[in-house]
Structures are given as structure tokens and as C-alpha cells.
Amino acid sequence: MYQESLKDTIAAISTPPGQGGIGIVRISGKESLNIADKIFVAKNNKKPSSFRTYSVHYGKVFDLNKDAQIVDEALIILMKSPKSYTAEDVVEISCHGGSASLKKILSLALESGARLAQPGEFTKRAFLNGRMDLTQAEAVLDIIQAKTEAFLRTSVNQLKGELTLELESIRELLMDSYVEIEAIVNFPEDDIDASSRQGLMVRIDDAIQKVNTLLLSSDQGRIMKEGAKVVICGKPNVGKSSLLNVFLRMPRAIVSEVKGTTRDTIEESAQIKGIPLQLVDTAGILRPRNSIEKEAVRRSHLNIDEADLILFMIDISDRISKEDQQIIDKIKGKNIIVVLNKSDKRVRVDVEKIRKHLSDSLQIKVSALCKDGIDILEENIVKNILHGKEFQESKIVISNVRQIESLKKCLLALQKAKHHFLNQLSLEFISEEIKLAVDSLDKITGKSISQDLLDKIFSSFCIGK
Ligand SMILES: Nc1nc2c(ncn2[C@@H]2O[C@H](COP(=O)(O)OP(=O)(O)OP(=O)(O)O)[C@@H](O)[C@H]2O)c(=O)[nH]1
Ligand SMILES: [Mg+2]
Questions:
Q1: How far lies 266's CA from each of 254, 281, 283, 315, in Å?
Q2: Which residues are registered as beta bridge partners of 93?
Q3: Ligand 1 atom nearest 262 alpha carbon
Q4: Of the candidates 36, 38, 25, the residue with the CA atom closest to the CA atom of residue 102
Q5: pLDDT digits (tens, 9 = 90+) for 145-169
Q6: In 98-227, where do the E strands start and end?
Q7: 319 Cβ below 6 A of ligand 1
């Protein structure tokens, strides 16, 4: 089925919908250059197919069905096989970024012999044509979706092939062991000596350590990818939006002395001491009076449930009220830092009361208004999220669930192999586990992967990529 569809020439609008300065229609496949010849006329009247690869030309896109009506002015970029993104002939037509122009150029390409590309099909072709392995293809998606600079950097490393190299080095260790075991099994008269036994063990241990290191990186991988979710909650008017603005260093949320100012949750990405965070300011409303406020409460609760860390804010110039108590009941048992705000005012709150209910939680005094205590609060947020560990931005970070699952399977097989080895079980058992471990690695790189899974992976891409 792949071979069939690989023969097609595919086309899609590669820029996002909406208006923009420019937009790009991308075409890939054997017919790309012919299609370009049919719909594009260069200023020098030469046919695009005669242009050198990696050259850009100014001209016009024409609709031959309509007496060669001009559709748009455009630049055409040619990248001939095999040195292109998909390893096929690729043509990119860069026109004005309006939807009418882009749709018309796409429809002309389709009328001239291309078919509409599936989501991620350009990248899928790059993979199927051997331009990149699956980890690199997935890195393309990660780069497009990267929300944090730290994650962008590791995704670019993955696209460069850093993860591929590491996986290859583990695979090599395992293949060497596998070949050695097979030789012994097939030629039992050459009995295994102590030094090859030792060598085998060292290689399996090395592989276990490398897989473990990759898996350990996944701890911070999700934080790098998404940013840890830090939700600010508390009753109305305690200063939640003021704190959000202090973190963001800009007046993002409306702050006022009117209770219930924030009605919708406000989400912003930010970095605190280099750690990517998803900061959420919630509505303080507790007793909704209408459907809008009901929705606001629902969203606050949803965010509280999904939070990596809750900043529970209390106004220290006020006594603990029923409303505070209601929130305490909702968040009890979660990962919480209690933020005692308005430290510039006279203290009326009974801190012991909070301690009684949230005994494990750290309490930090701040004044969002005067920006006092913010540094200490930020330090503790970071400490809390990283569980006291240092944030190490390593070259390779695993954040993809599919990759994590395969690595776990690989590790399990290697641990079994080691166990068999130590218990002097027959070598066949060990070689079976090593084969399973290699197979798990091959699933990550795509060397061995089912069609269904491949389709699933690429279907999460956008059209045109
Ligand atoms: N004195 C003092 N006032 C503060 C401080 N932080 C916030 N305020 C004031 O408290 C009032 C409420 O602040 P907001 O940040 O809007 O409070 P909120 O918790 O977001 O309120 P809702 O959106 O209504 O739930 C405003 O008048 C702020 O200027 C502080 O540290 N000290
Ligand atoms: Mg607010």
C-alpha cells in the first residue's frame, strides 16, 4: 500500500490558515516539476523544470483553464531529488498569504496531477525514503509544537540525530552480544571462556546503564515539553492575578479591588529561573450565581486537578474564612505551597489554622503589590517541581510516551537477560531477551514498526508537514 501511495505526487498548503504576509503551497513527488511547468511562468519565461536545484525564481501562477488568468505573483523554490525534505522532487510556491490565493494554487496543483497530502505525509515520505528515522520525524512534530525554548533545543538535537546515535550505540552493544551468543550456541565445541563471559556481562550492563540514563531524562522531559503546570488559587481578592503579573513581569491579568475580577482562567507560559512553567490564574469565585460563573468554577477545578503545583493564596490581612476553608478542602492532599500575600499589611490571619489543615505545605510570605518575597517564592517553586534536583539541560531528553514505553520494554528484557546470565541459564534464554531488547529499540527508530502505528504517529502531524 505504501509503495502505491509513494508513487503519487502530493500537495498541500504548508502555512497555517488565516491571513499572513506569505503562504506556501508545497508539492512533492515525481510530477512536481511537470505541475510547476503547467501552473507557473517565470519572469524569464523559462520552465521551472529547467531550473537548477535549490534555486528561487520570481514569476506568476496562471490558471490555464481560464485563458491563463493570473492567480498571484509568487516565488518558486525547487529542490530536486534526492536532496530535498522528502528525498523526492519538491516544489514550494510562495505566494501572498491569503486563503483565496493559496486555495486556488493548491487546486491548480491538484488539477494538474497531484493529490491532497495527508497530515504529516511529507515527513512520512522523508521517513519512508530513508531521509530520517522515526525519532527524527517525531522531532519535526516536537519542533512545531515546542512551547518552551529548552524543549525546542532538545528537539533540534533529536532532529540532528543525537537520539538516533545513542540508540545505535546501544543496539551495537546488544548486536555484538547477540552474535557472540549465537556463535557459541551454534558451535558448542568452542566453549565459552571466562573472559568472553565477562565481556558479555559488561556489554549488557553498559546497555542497561545507557537505557536507564535515557529513561531518567524523561522525568524532566515532560516539564521541558509542556512546562510544569502551576495553578494559583484562592478566594476572591487575595491577589492571585497580581502574583501572575509579577511572575510574568507584565500586567497580563486585570487587577482590581472588586471581588471576582477574574472570571475565566488565564494561562501563560513563563520561565522561572530557567524552568518552563505553565502559569494558571484562576477565578476566585466560589458560589457561582450564573452559568458563566459556573463555568469559571468548573475550569478552576479542572486546573487544580491537573496541577503539578498549587499556589494556594491567602490574604494575611484577613481572617481565615469559610471560603478559604472550602478551597482547603478541595486541594488537601495535593502538592501545595501556601502563599501568604499582602505581607505589607497588618497580619490578622491565624497561620496555625492553616498549618492544622495543610501541615506538609511550605508557607511563604510575599507582597505581590510591593514585589517582596517573590525571589524566595520562585526559588521554592523550582525546588518543588524538580524535587530538589538540579535542572540539567542534557542534549538528549526523552519526552515522547511511545519512546518511553519502548525503552521500558528494552530495559526489562535486558534486566531479564542479566538475571538469566547470573543464574547461568542456557544462553538461548539470554539471546531471546537480547532480541526483544533490540526489537524495542528498533520500534523507536522505526526500523521495525507496524503500518498501523506508523499511520497513527503521522496522523497527529498537521497537513503540509
Ligand atoms: N496591600 C496589598 N494589596 C494587594 C497585594 N496584592 C494584591 N493586592 C490588591 O488586592 C486587590 C485584588 O487583587 P487581584 O490580584 O485582582 O486579586 P485576585 O485574587 O486575582 O482577585 P479575583 O480575580 O477577584 O479573584 C487589588 O486591589 C490589588 O491591588 C499586596 O501584596 N498587598
Ligand atoms: Mg484575579
A1: 10, 5, 9, 20
A2: 25, 76
A3: 23
A4: 25
A5: 887 777 888 899 999 999 999 999 9
A6: 115-116
A7: no
Using the mean position of ligand 2's atoms as its centre, give its distance from the Cα of residue 253 in Å: 7
Q: At what angle do helices 134-145 and 427-445 cross, to 10 degrees?
A: 40
C-alpha 306 to ligand 1 mean position (Å): 25
Cα 106 from Cα 63, distance rounded (Å): 11
| Cβ of residue 288 lying under 6 Å from some atom of ligand 1 | no
Atom of ligand 1 nearest to the CA of 243: 15
- Position with higher pLDDT, 288 vs 195: 288
Q: Read off the pLDDT of residues 64-92 as tens digits, 9 standing for 90 and up.
A: 877 778 999 999 999 999 999 999 999 99
Written as one string, the DSSP assignment of 193-240 is PHHHHHHHHHHHHHHHHHHHHHHHHHHHHHHHHH-EEEEEE-STTSSH
Ligand minimally distant from the alpha carbon of residue 314: 1
In this predicted structure, the answer to whether residue 122 has a pLDDT above a threshold of 80 is yes
Confirm or reject: Cβ of 158 under 6 Å from ligand 1: no
**Alpha-carbon gap, residue 280 to 240, rounded angstroms:** 10
In terms of C-beta distances under 8 Å and separation of at least 24 residues, what long-range contacts does 78-82 make, across chains too? 78/33, 78/36, 78/48, 78/51, 78/52, 78/53, 78/54, 79/53, 79/54, 80/33, 80/53, 82/129
- Residue 238: CB within 6 Å of ligand 1? yes
Q: How many CB atoms lie within 10 A of CB 194?
A: 7
Q: How far is the CA of 71 from the centre of ligand 2 (A)?
A: 50
- 287: amino acid identity, one letter: R
Report all structural domains of the chain as residue ranges with CATH numbers, in order of start.
2-131 (3.30.1360.120), 140-219+400-446 (1.20.120.430), 227-385 (3.40.50.300)
Distances (CA, A) of 294 to 267, 301, 329: 19, 11, 19
Tell me phi and psi for residue 46, to 5 degrees: -80, 150
Q: What is the CA radius of gyration of the chain?
A: 29
pLDDT at 411 over 70: yes
Nearest CA to ligand 1 atom 9: 239
The rounded distance, in Å, linking the Cα atoms of 54 and 44 is 17
For 385, the grid coordinates are 517541581
Q: How far apart are alpha carbons 275 and 382 in whole angstroms?
A: 7
The Cα 72–Cα 367 span in angstroms is 57
Which pLDDT tens digit goes with each residue over 13-50? Answer: 999 998 999 999 999 999 999 999 999 999 999 999 99
C-alpha dihedral sign at 193, 198, 203, 205: positive
Q: Is residue 265 in contact with ligand 1, taking CB distance under 6 Å?
A: no
Beta strand 336-341 pairing with 362-365: parallel
